[in-house]
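As described in the Methods, two query proteins were run sequentially through the folding procedure within a single session, without resetting any intermediate state between them. The first query and its resulting structure tokens are shown here.
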Amino acid sequence: MPARPHDAPDAPQRLATQAIELSVAAPQVVAQRLTRMALAGLNPSTEHHDELVRMGSEKVQAFQESWLAMWAQAWQSQLALAESVARSSLDMLVGRDHPASVLMQVPTEAAEVLSAGLAPLRDKAMDNARRLSVPAGAATASAEAVA
């Protein structure tokens, strides 16, 4: 059964890596944002307010991207599995393939779908972890120093 170009043999490994990166980045982002909220107190500045708005809107966007990516990957996986079933059926007629060979492709396709869905969430969490690790006023101060 020939591999498709996007079928990396390491799809489960890529999924595991993304999950680990997300599990490290997400708590960092939560800690940074909770600390900033606590420091802002009852009268948040415009910068703090903007961060809170950004926090909500980026979650909605990341989940929309995630569902779209999973849908698109699931569609591609369904087509690939259908192609494999058709090819396997023909190969079985001439004795070149075993029906179980198609079933061996399912876990890889499932990992591809999950990985596609996790990617936008992981990317956003990693970006936020990097961005929020800079002290609140440091980015502004360094930009002003350059100007």
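Immediately afterward, the second query was submitted; its sequence and tokens are:
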Amino acid sequence: MAKPGPAAGSEGARKIAEAHRGSHEHDKEGGFAANPSLAREAGRKGGETVKNRYGPTFYQSIGKKGGETVKRERGTEFYAEIGRKGGEMRGQRAATRREGSAADTSTSSAPTGRKRGRPAKKSE
């Protein structure tokens, strides 16, 4: 059974939505678009709730499923391509930092030697 009124996404539906916009009190408050910190807080609370309900491994499992889907749809070459792009950007940023530190040696702090990303696995 079809819903009454214009079809979703049609010109008539857009006209009705435009006429309605701003007619309620919550529309005047602005919501997430007007207050990005409100959206961050809502997202953080939602993420904590999901973690408490399903456990921390839930995010690992959905990430793995998503990665498998991307691999199936785009192929392994996609991962090689984004890895190359990431490596290029990292190299460019490092070169920029080197150039900046060479030009201003009096106030720059010495690099820590720490790499970003996952810590190295310890060999036993």
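The first helix runs from residue 11 to 20. We note this only descriptively and draw no conclusion about the first query from it.
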